[in-house]
Design goal:
Largest sheet: 12 strands, antiparallel, barrel
Strand content: over 45%
Number of helices: 1
Oligomer: single chain
Protein name: Transporter
Number of strands: 20
Pfam families: Phenol_MetA_deg
CATH topology: Porin
InterPro entries: FApF
Order of helices and strands: HEEEEEEEEEEEEEEEEEEEE
CATH architecture: Beta Barrel
Amino acid sequence: MMKLGLGRKVRHFTLATTAVQCLMSGTIVYGQGQDSQVHDFVPAPAGTQIGLLYYLGSTSDTYIDGHGHKVDDSSLDTNVGLLRYVYYFDIAGMRADVNVLQPFGSLNNMRVGGSDIDTKDFSIGDVTLVGTLWPLNDPEHERYFAIATYLTLPTGNYSASEPGLGSNRWSLSIQPGYLFKIAPQWSVDLVGDVTFYGDNNDGPGGADLEKDPSFTMLGWLNYEASAKTMFSLGFTTTRGGEESVKGVDGSDVKSTTIRAEWSQMLSPTTQFLMEIGHDVDAENTFKRDATLTFRLAKFF
């Protein structure tokens, strides 16, 4: 009986941890794919610095297992902040940038299959370092193509018994993005990424956790109402990231989210952005009823 109880606890913890990493990677950070807001691949002039503050929230009362079945009596709320710094410069005749991202926050009301999962009230997430290069930077025709590389370091608060924002593993994401104009006030953002994961050698019960690569596609259709205001509709879909525990394979994580976004220049150097979203499909993760993003950006 003790072994059965422990096995169930480890299984539920592993499910919860996988789900949290999926949600948190693409926060810019929601598991370890990296998210992208509208026009993130439009570079600022060389020498520009940007400080950004994000709030990333979500709520879910549904967990979908690896077979596509709903796990009753499951829930998770996330409240995460993110600090980000960006610096633009030129190298070899091309625009480039460097980023530093630091998430922090809490996971609340985590429950899987009727089992409450203790979580950290507050934790610091993993630091992510980003470098972006623009082989195509054509402001005249409003066409941009860039490749961003995200390196996530295992610096966050991590516990093998309580899910938090730290993953206890390295990860590397390669993210190309293309933005182009389709009409005077309309544009499209297309972004993809592949993320590779190192091992977590301190999983539940001391188990080694291995994770397969994950893949994300993201698209935005944007309407520029004025020079200061933009409205956008988009989607994100993620596949992969199967996790193995003690050599036993799990299932790929799958999710598809529809999104709507409004961005507004409050002044020549300050921008506010708000985004809402809803998961229309999920597997081996929490299906989010609602997501909410606020972002404040200050240009220097």
